[in-house]
Amino acid sequence: MDILRRNTDYALRLMIGLAKREDGASVATRTLAEEQGVPYQLACKLMQQLHAAKLVGSVMGARGGFRLGRDPAEISLLNVVEVIQGRLSLNRCLVDSTCCPRKDGCPVRARMNELQGQMDEYLGGVSLADLLRTRAGATHDAKEPAGRTK
């Protein structure tokens, strides 16, 4: 089972496509969908969800389309994930404390809760700007032999 759903992956691609536009220019959904390999109809639905959450803004007219609603450094992976698929949860007992009678003394729940916190913190700490820097560095770093440090 995938933790991140296909739609979330597509939404992240769309957001990165918008973040790449340094001038903040608006782009049509069809263009963005083609660039990012996302089916057009699905891209329309995802952009509506992202717009409703104010992660993207829209511009009407012939030169209209979508653009990021905030600076790429202010939009985290967690923001996008939660808009598209809701809060990620490793285990049902972390979301609904009434689902298990052993919740108070369960060592598994305690460890899962720690991991949940680490996952939320990590995803919340990675911004679109970070992804753009990583992507730009990946081309350069790909030339380095595996296992070697710079």
> What CATH architecture label of the largest domain applies?
Orthogonal Bundle
Mean pLDDT, rounded to whole units? 86
* Overall 3D form: elongated
CATH superfamily of the largest domain: Winged helix-like DNA-binding domain superfamily/Winged helix DNA-binding domain
Content-based structural category: mainly alpha
Q: Which stretches are poorly predicted, pLDDT < 50 over at least 5 residues?
A: 140-150
Could you characterize the architecture of this molecule?
With 150 residues, this protein is mostly helical. It has 2 domains: 1-87, Arc Repressor Mutant, subunit A, CATH 1.10.10; 89-127. It is built from 7 helices and 2 strands, in the order αααββαααα. The protein has a two-stranded antiparallel sheet with strand order 1-2. The longest helix is centred in the last third of the chain and has 19 residues, at 107-125.
